[in-house]
């Protein structure tokens, strides 16, 4: 008998074993179960699971963007690439720009840093998609101020932020990684520039999802109900929708 399966059968309660059966190839099911139950100090994967499936935070990010997909229209700015612009904006997008700090980034149409981006014209974008980005600039408020400035009146920024997450070692060494967030800190930051009634903050996650994400377990290795339960004491992924008001 497979060692992982034998260990899991000895250690896991029968209801947990029943949940795992039929969800994944046998060796993956038992390996994941053993890892979580035995309290391993090494993760299953250090790349958030990106090579083997969908990272759990991306499951929540895509739920958020799907919820507000109609905001993604007109002239849209996204950081890094425009995959979400194309996927969720569909034919509502008339022009797509990609922002990146490196001039060598092949998908970038605008080179710059949100903390010092005076070259980007004010009142330019109908929508800004900013996923898992604001943990990198030390001067976060400068970045948010830039976003407010370059949004058109009535424009929307859709933001996701890490709450409970491992360090991305590659980005840490390339750019620095300074922050983790809560719904309270996210609301406080964005209401420095956006009116309070124009800012909506949500959180996604629960203790199982957070623990699995830290181990590098992927979405496909959990059941939807295990991901969809939201526990406000385990804010794994924070989302912000902020609207720039029309000038009076």
Structural class: alpha/beta
Report the C-alpha radius of gyration, rounded. 20 Å
Top CATH class of the largest domain: Alpha Beta
CATH A-level architecture of the largest domain: 3-Layer(aba) Sandwich
Low-confidence stretches: none
Per DSSP, the total helix count is 10
Mean pLDDT, all residues = 89
Q: Please, what is the CATH homologous superfamily of the largest domain? A: Vaccinia Virus protein VP39
Number of beta-strand segments: 7
Number of domains: 2
Kindly identify the CATH topology of the largest domain. Rossmann fold
Which shape, going by the Cα principal axes?
Answer: globular
Percentage of residues in DSSP E strands = 15-25%
- What's the order of the H and E elements? HHHHEHEEEHEHHEHHE
Spatial order of the strands forming the largest sheet: 3-2-1-4-5-7-6
State the helical fraction.
25-40%
Distance between the termini: 72 Å
Please render the helix and strand layout as text:
Blueprint: H1 3-11, H2 14-20, H3 26-38, H4 56-67, E1 74-79, H5 83-89, E2 93-100, E3 110-111, E4 125-131, H6 140-150, E5 151-162, H7 169-175, H8 183-190, E6 199-204, H9 207-215, H10 224-228, E7 237-243
Parallel strand pairs: 1-2, 1-4, 2-3, 4-5
Antiparallel strand pairs: 5-7, 6-7
Helix pairs in contact: 1-3
């Amino acid at each position: 008998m497979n060692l992982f399966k034998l260990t899991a059968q000895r250690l896991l309660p029968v209801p947990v074993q029943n949940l795992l059966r039929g969800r994944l190839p046998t060796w993956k099911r038992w390996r994941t179960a053993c890892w979580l139950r035995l309290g391993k100090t090494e993760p299953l994967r250090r790349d958030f699971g990106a090579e083997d499936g969908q990272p759990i935070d991306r499951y929540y990010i895509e739920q958020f963007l799907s919820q507000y997909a109609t905001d993604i229209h007109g002239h849209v700015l996204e950081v890094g690439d425009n995959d979400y612009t194309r996927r969720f904006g569909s034919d509502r997008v008339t022009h797509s720009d990609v922002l990146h700090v490196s001039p060598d980034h092949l998908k970038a149409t605008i080179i710059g840093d949100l903390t010092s981006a005076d070259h980007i014209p004010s009142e330019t974008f109908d929508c800004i998609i900013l996923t898992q980005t604001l943990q990198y600039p030390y001067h976060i408020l400068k970045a948010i101020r830039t976003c407010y400035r370059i949004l058109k009146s009535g424009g929307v920024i859709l933001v996701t932020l890490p709450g409970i997450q491992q360090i991305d070692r590659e980005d840490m060494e390339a750019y620095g990684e300074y922050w983790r967030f809560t719904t309270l800190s996210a609301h406080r930051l964005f209401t420095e520039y956006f009116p309070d009634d124009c800012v909506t903050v949500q959180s996604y996650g629960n203790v199982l999802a957070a623990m699995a994400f830290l181990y590098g377990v992927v979405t496909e290795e959990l059941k939807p109900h295990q991901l969809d339960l939201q526990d406000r004491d385990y804010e794994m992924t924070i989302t912000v929708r902020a609207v720039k008001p029309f000038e009076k």
